[in-house]
Amino acid sequence: MGHYTEMLKQVISYTSIYGLASLGIVIGGRTGIFNISGEGIMLASASAGFIAAYQTGNWFIGFLVGALMGGLFGLLLIYIHESLKISQFILGITLVILGTGLSDLLYKTIIGFQLFAPEAPKVPQIRIPIISEIPIISGILNQDVIVYFTYIVVFLAYYIFYHTRIGLETRAIGEDPLAADVVGINVKLRRYIATISGGALMGLAGAYLPLVVTGTYTTNISNGRGFMAIGIAIFASWRPERALLGAFIFAAIEVFSFQQQLGSSLFPYQFLLMLPFISVLVIMWLFRKRIEFPASLGKTYSRE
Amino acid sequence: MVGQEVSLKQTTKLQKIWVGSKPYILALLIAFGITGAIIGLLGYNVLKAYQTLLFTSFTSQRGIIETLKKFIPLTLTTYAFAIPFKIRFFNIGGWGQMLFGGTITAIVGIALAGFNLPAIIFIPILILVAMAAGGVFALIAGFLKAYYNINPIISTIMLNFIAIYFVNFIATTEPWKAPRTGHPMSLKLPEAARLPELFGQIHFGIVIVALVIIAVYYLINKTVLGYEIIATGINPDAASVYGIKMRRTLMLTFLIGGALGGLAGGIEVMGVHQRLIEGFALTSGAQYGIFGILTALICQGNPLGVPLSSIFISILLVGADAMQRTLQVPVELVFLSQAIIVLFIVVLRRRAGGSFIQ
User: Does residue A233 belong to any structural domain of this protein?
Assistant: First the structure.
């Protein structure tokens, strides 16, 4: 029993990585900006966040720097896209490579080679009074602050998008930016806000990896999770609450394949490692008829 | 006054070339400026670093050979991106196609080892196998887009990761695994399956790439399919009105691009490593797979510009390796500077009124 509780706890923790990263993509996507650079952002933020936390000894600063780095990437994307109308996909791919290079460069130049892997300051777990006393639930619930934060932002995003005027207007931009522009919505400003905050969420997901999951920074730490988040956003039809569900599914697949690797298993472990990536393809194929896109997603909008 | 206006519009050929190349030159200068500033800030000797970065390829015979050795696979992975890009689809899977092509080449090469085939038959078989493997691997993405509208960016990236683990599975598992090696790797390919060395220096892959460059030029400019690809890239709707089948063109560009990506892997396995090494996915695979995309973006996916931009990036890659060896400047800096170069080329061409795909 304890084993399964521990596994579920891990799944919930991993849900944050996928949840935050895919929510970041969903928020930008709702204004028509398809930010595919999540992998680069996560890598750069993982590195910057870890370095900041390690140097200051403060995990909170690590998350802050990670989010800032992500926001900066978002700003770069939206600034070049909006001012020069250059394809979001080309910019996205370039940013992936920029982030990949930046992550190791930062680590190598600031931390350098260490005999023992430097350890990040421990992120405390939040214990909710009373509930924390219940045996099984306590094992699942005692999570770090980012896990709770994930649920709060997903709820906030859901509430704002579907129950407020601002959200309705923002979704309208994603469907038809020209129409939104005509009725007086500030398309440019909304896109800036959505892309930068989306980038910050991806950055947070990146910083979560060294600070919570591994405890230290390693090369290529996000290992494709930033790309899988794109799959989750698509599977979720760009709805925040479904993105969380998708994140949970992928977290479960990842934890499952990791657990199987440890035990003696029927499959070679490489095939288990493939499993999350194969799942993205299978899930996108299975749900292909139910997937919806914001109509202007990825398209360049200019007033002329 | 009227006469003056006319004379202003008359531009010489030289001016045209200048207008066309200005964004590139400026982008390079800016990117090198930024990279130089970073190198300086990190406390390295900027002048020496640049000397190493730019001129290592030319200062020795070894430098030239090393540059060509990178040029061979890089040109192929660049085509893997550039050809589907011609009809505005993104094949991010050059990496995976290269790995899959290389792995299947190794498997078939090891399997046929007992037949004692002569090189003249063995090598062409393996080249075709590599191309078929890469092509089919890319075709999965093309098919998923054509029939199920699954974004090729996503599918090719997922296929990359599948290929990475596939390489490691083959390299570490019997019967392919070589016994008693420190680092996991497959058995060596038989002698007849290895690409011969020309002048004892550079393997035969250089000839294959030269043929590919000519073939791609011919394909794009002189064939019906090439015409269809160009027409579809300019206006997919109009192209389909005139009877060009979108699905077919889409799948064919992925097939061709993937075949060239697979060929890159096959050549690496047959010409350089002569076996499949466990880290193949992350060393040369990642290098050529990822830089292929950047290289293609530098020449804006123009298939004719591919060899040029590929030789340029090869020079930088060789220089970067040397820079890390001799000056301890982290090699990741080159990742960074190349991304910056691409960003500025895209931006400056746009500024100059160039038509980059939007």
Answer: yes
Tell me which chain A residue has its CA closest to the CA of residue B39: A109
Using alpha carbons only, what angle is made at residue A156 by residues A153 and A160, rounded to the nearest 5 degrees?
140
Each residue's pLDDT tens digit in chain A (304 positions)? Answer: 567 888 888 999 999 999 999 999 999 999 999 999 999 999 999 999 999 999 999 999 999 999 999 999 999 999 999 888 888 888 998 899 899 989 988 998 888 877 788 888 888 888 777 777 777 777 677 788 999 999 999 999 999 999 999 999 999 999 999 999 999 999 999 999 999 999 999 999 999 999 999 999 998 899 889 999 998 998 898 999 999 999 999 999 888 888 877 765 667 888 888 888 998 899 889 988 888 888 888 888 887 7
pLDDT digits (tens, 9 = 90+) for A171-200: 999 999 999 999 999 999 999 999 999 999
The whole-number pLDDT of residue B12 equals 74
- CA A280 – CA B356 distance, rounded (Å): 31
- Chain B residue closest to A274 (CA)? B162
Q: Which chain A residue shows the shortest CA-CA distance from B44? A: A109
Q: Which of B335, B338, B344, B355 to mutate to test the interface with A (most CBs of A within 10 A)?
A: B335
Q: Are A239 and A25 in contact (CB under 8 A)?
A: no
CATH number of A17's domain: 1.10.3470
Asked if B151's CB is within 8 angstroms of A274's CB, the reply is no
What's the pTM value of the predicted model, to 2 decimals?
0.89
Sequence ranges of the domains in chain B = 71-298
User: Structurally, how many domains does chain A consist of?
Assistant: 1
- Classify residue A44: in a domain, yes or no: yes
Query: Which chain B residues are closer than 8 Å to A284 by Cβ?
Result: 150, 154-155
* A293 located within any domain: no
| B157–A80 C-beta distance less than 8 A | no
Closest C-alpha to A49, from A133, A146, A134: A146
Write out the residues of chain B at the interface with chain A, using a CB-CB cutoff of 8 A.
Answer: 42, 90, 92, 144, 148-151, 153-155, 157-159, 161-162, 165-166, 168-169, 172-173, 282, 290, 293-294, 297, 330, 332-336, 338-340, 342-343, 346-347, 350-351, 356-358
Min distance A277 CA to chain B CA atoms (Å): 5
- B331 contact partners, CB below 8 Å, separation of at least 6: B320, B321, B323, B324
Residue A304 lies in a domain: no
Domain that holds residue A227: 2-286
Report the percentage of chain A scoring pLDDT > 90. 57
Q: How far is B121 from chain A (nearest CA, A)?
A: 33
Query: In whole angstroms, what is the distance from residue A280 CA to residue B104 CA?
Result: 24
Taking alpha carbons only, the member of B77, B94, B118 closest to residue B306 is: B77
Task: Using an 8 Å CB-CB cutoff, list chain A residues near B294.
Answer: 94, 97
Query: What is the distance in angstroms between the Cα of A107 and the nearest Cα belonging to chain B?
Result: 10
Does the predicted interface ipTM exceed a cut of 0.90? no
